[in-house]
Amino acid sequence: MLEWVREKAKKLGFTIVIGKSDNGNNGRSAFVIVICERGGLYKEYKRKTRRKIVGSVKCECRFQMKGYLLIAGDWILKVGDGIHNHDMANVLKGHKTSRHLNPNEHVHLYEMTESNVPSRQMLTNLRKRNINTSTTIKHVYNACHMFGKLIRGSRTDMQHLLKSLIENKYVYHCRNYHDSDDVSDIFWAHPDGIKLLFNMFSTVFVLDSTYKVNKYHLPLLEFVGNTSTQLTFSIGFAYMMSEKEDNVTWALERCREWLDSKDLYPRVVVTDRDNALMNVVDTVFPKATALLCEYHIERNVRVKCKMDCKVKDLKGNDEKEIKPNSKVKTIMLAYFEF
Q1: Domain count along the chain
Q2: CA distance 123 to 144
């Protein structure tokens, strides 16, 4: 009955929710009261992220329907109040209840999550299976998050990470914070990547940190190698409590332990303009040539020279003269020397 009511309401341009119900235990008659999603009192609240006052979609809509379960097992539906005090919507993507996934879509979404399908591709597949779906990308994110919590169970994030590393036979190292039970740094890599790639193509070594990729705001240090065919591959990853020299030194030393001999030490190490990382590279790999990433250099040149170097506008006018500036000359000289 509820599925039939939802389909009819969707065609008319509104959505319904259950206002009150009883499953019929203790000798009572089973019933359900269906109301419009916009039924109820309007409330204002503050969003935590944007810190601005927003309102709910409720506007005291009086629409109401009552369903009763008969003795024969059938349901009878009666309209209590069939009047709406708002316009019908042409598109229901902004309504929460219309974006709910059915059980078949949940199963399909969980299968794609286990196969590491990107979230946007999941949404595309769901829309191909059901053209009339109103599911948005935010709802897909929430469903994937709930599926991850279901897999993790009662384990913490660190316990689940260690369990996954052990089950998939990854090589990992952990370091506790001041001899306590809290893990401050963790480093891991796939054994095939160490054996087949890193010990064969260890000439060029690229180090870079990624920020704001987890809820703990820990920097993720990625170790990347380069093959003879100019392809890159991931060597290992490290979550660190901070980017101090002590933490970076520990991560680089764990990576150095995987090398079979000193002859395989990297000859070129590419980093960004991070002082701690540059100092540690000189200590752990003293014979390696330290270079800066071309992307970071080019980006810094554009930022620093933006106010002094003028380019042609959209109309094709001539370039303006470059003002003589010692800072600009120094930056451009370092860029071309690189």
Answers
A1: 4
A2: 12
